[in-house]
Amino acid sequence: MVSKAAMTHKFNEEAANELVDEIGQLILGDDALDDDDWVSISAVINLDGQPDVRGFIYRTEGHATPSTPEKSELLSTAKELQKVMTVGGVTWKAVLVQITLPEFEIKIAFEYESAAKWPIEAEALRPVLLE
Hints:
Elements: H1 4-8, H2 13-28, E1 38-46, E2 52-59, E3 64-67, H3 71-85, E4 94-100, E5 105-111, H4 122-125
């Protein structure tokens, strides 16, 4: 468990925000998004053990399509973000990235305890769209 003391130390937020933006751009650059038939994307980047990226594209009609963006550059950028955010040896193991239209809003959540927190299932990762 991550101690509160470890979480109060600051990391370079500006560098982290730039890397989050870069991750969003890499995901949006996926060839699977070439059409206009999508409303949101969810991707889990797991850096614990064997690094991996998995996710879903949520289509306008409501169904989800499995999608794995180009991994090498995305994993490299995620590792940079993890390094920037590591404070006192405490680091996250996985990150959930969700992008929703029409504003291209990026939501991001970090998991420090279990990289298996988010099951790689379409409904479990579906972003909640607020109207």
